[in-house]
Amino acid sequence: MMNENILTCRNLSKNYAHLSALSGINMNIPRGRIIGLLGPNGSGKTTFMKIANGLIVPSEGELLIGGHRPGPETKKIVSFLPATDYLPSWMSVENLVRFFSDFFGDFNAEKADGMLKRLDIDTRARLKTLSKGTKEKVQLILAMSREAQLYLLDEPIGGVDPAARDYILNTIITNYNEDASVIISTHLIADVEKVLDDVIFIQNGQIQLCRPVDEIREQEGKSVDAYFREVFRC
Amino acid sequence: MLKKLTKYEFKATGRTLGILYLALIILSCVCRLIFGLNSFNAPDVNFATGISSLILIFLYGMLICAVLVVTFLMIIQRFWKNLLQNEGYLMNMLPVRSWQHIASKLLVSVVWTFASVIVVFLSILILSTLAMKEISMDFFREFWTDLMEVLPHIGFDGAYLIIMSIVILLLMTASEILQLYAAMSVGQTQNRYKILCSFAAYIVLSIIFQLIVSLLTWSTGTFIPDGVLMTLFSTSVNTAIYAGTTIIAVYYLAKCAILFFITNYCLKNKLNLE
Amino acid sequence: MEWNFDNQRPIYTQLAEMIRMCIISGIYQPGSRLPSVRELANEASVNPNTMQKALAELERTGLIYAVRTSGRFVTEDEEKIASARRSLAEGEVEKFLRKMKDLGIGRDEVIELIRRSETGGKEETVRTSDVSVSDGTQETA
To answer: What integer pLDDT is reported at residue B234 of this predicted model?
Structure first.
């Protein structure tokens, strides 16, 4: 049970009227890996994340998490960090912590409180009074305080300063366990490179390559960031 | 999970409506006091008090409208914004089933609809005590004793009628709210013009149910011989009432079920959060 | 300790080198217990899997060894550490000499320069390469 792939895509496609956001994705994500989903803007990263969380339905093919299509069963084991501002702004940080512990059996409120305290975030503040960077930190803390089996982080470091970036990446690597996997979608490759096991390059809704980071460095003699620039040269 | 969802739904909506309710009750009390002091028809009404009473009445009217409009908008907005817009990311990542989302929102909406209507009536009641002189608590005490006197005499038929009326009222309210939900759920499946499509879906649903109603009345008139109906209704008024209320209740129950199913199907299988 | 990585080589090899350096320089004493994979990974801000790989690499060379339940320890074999130090020094000297050759400085001149910097030069410029250079000269001379 624990050895099977946590996430599987079979011919996963999503078409809109005039374009296909994903076309025929096949992949397996094993447990215990941190994977970078890298690609230019509009390459299909967010579409993939949304399908995996049941926010949109695929046009063709399927995506399975722990053997199930996205639904209440998968949502119990998936911790999702959307790229957008998605938390109700009228709620305070402590409201949200309670909300998460109410609905997610795997939510560790102590862990969340610890991280909030360390970052000096006022838990009584309503979300609408917080700065964009602080809000993103709160969102990440909530997502990483779950002891989930799969973390889907859509652009977790997009809007924060470099110091916060390091904190966020550290939070990610310290909070996941060996049976869990993390998928981080981003276009800021240089920043995440050292925390990744594998990278998946995605472009125009198709997987360009899927390799371990060490292998790229060993065989190409360059960083993933440099290699990415080479593969996606305009 | 349903309980938790409902709890948070009340939390999210309670503040705004609570403030409005409070404001309305306070304003009606204020009106009652002011108009009670210098009675309306008194000949010594001067311009200043006239204007201020006018403003007060206008404000009062506005507040009643606000309570009703806000209740209505809240019903739509809580569903649209909380499930189908950005906040939908949060709600749809919760390990709950879509029917639980709908049920919690429906429950809360029905409660607020009734609460709003009751509060508006209450405020009118407070104001209307103006018309009667020196009523205060006596009025209510009398009302209560009268009610207590009547109750034992209404019998089974009366009780049935009262309960059925309440049930039908509930089902009607629920079906209206569910029609809004169903329209939004259908509208959001489109990639563009989601709001426009929701409006269109609402209109189509209205037409469909109107057709069903006309079809039902037409078929009763056509397929059941007049004689049967006549004998049915002539046997006793009660039978007619039983038959009538049951048919209406069943119709609204079916309407609720159909709309709930449409909404649930769309949220479960066709969610489309762009 | 600073954990900076260059972009050309795999991160786990660089991590292995850094930990080896800690062992050679005595930050991690012979026979002492190493921090856990998780602690090390957090400190270096890298993926625990990568750190695991680096430690496995060091295990292979015998500089550290794993005890099933209690973690990883630095080898007690001082000779092993000394030989690691020597081979690291050799590498550094080789690099240094190659650079001097590129600069067009001959072997005698190099030795002369080293002597002068030992007596009169600014300490900080040569401090770190002190050991390796004197080691290297003995062998190349």
So the answer is: 66
Residue C18 pLDDT > 50, yes or no? Answer: yes
A with C: touching (≥3 Cβ pairs within 8 Å): yes
Confidence of residue C141 (pLDDT cuts 50, 70, 90): very low
In a domain, A180, yes or no: yes
pLDDT tens-place values along chain A, 234 residues long: 445 789 999 999 999 877 889 999 999 999 999 999 998 888 899 999 999 999 999 999 999 999 999 999 999 999 999 998 899 999 999 999 999 999 999 999 999 999 999 889 999 999 999 988 889 889 999 999 999 999 999 998 877 778 878 888 888 888 878 889 999 998 888 888 889 999 999 999 999 889 999 899 989 888 899 998 888 876
- The backbone torsions φ and ψ at residue B87, rounded to the nearest 5 degrees and listed phi first, read -65, -20
Q: A78-81 and A60-65: which strand pairing?
A: unpaired
Contact A86 B270 (CB under 8 A): no
- The two tokens of residue B91 are 């709600």
**Which stretches within chain A are classed as H helix?**
45-52, 72-77, 93-103, 109-118, 132-144, 162-175, 189-192, 213-220, 224-231
Which domain range does residue A200 map to? 7-87+146-231
Chains A and B touch, using 3 or more CB pairs below 8 Å: yes
Q: Count the neighbouring beta carbons within 10 Å of the beta carbon of residue A110.
A: 9
In chain A, whose CA is at the least distance from the CA of B88? A86
What are the structural domains, with CATH classification, of chain C? 11-76 (1.10.10.10), 79-140 (no CATH)
Contact (CB, 8 A) for B187 and B272: no
C contact test, residue of A217, A227, A228 with most C CBs within 10 A: A217
Which tens digit of pLDDT belongs to each residue from C61-73? 888 898 888 889 8
Nearest C-alpha in B relative to A92: B12
Instruction: Kindly list the residues from chain C whose CB atom is less than 8 angstroms away from the CB atom of residue A213.
Output: 10-11
> Are the beta carbons of A102 and B93 separated by less than 8 Å?
no
Q: Closest approach of chain A CAs to the CA of B202, in angstroms?
A: 23
> CB C42 to CB A33 under 8 A?
no
What residue in B sits closest to A87 (Cα-Cα)? B87
Separation between Cα atoms, residue C89 and residue C129, nearest integer Å: 9
Touching subunits for chain A (3+ Cβ pairs under 8 A): B, C
Q: Which of B93, B99, B188, B267 to mutate against chain A (most A CBs within 10 Å)? A: B93
Burial class from Cβ neighbours inside 10 Å (0-12, 13-18, 19+) for residue B121 reads: exposed
What residues of chain B score a pLDDT lower than 70?
36-48, 130-139, 225-230, 232-238
**Which of A195, A220, A224, A228 is the best mutation test for C, with the most CBs of C within 10 A?**
A195
The CATH number for A82's domain is 3.40.50.300
Q: Is a pLDDT exceeding 50 seen at residue C140? A: no
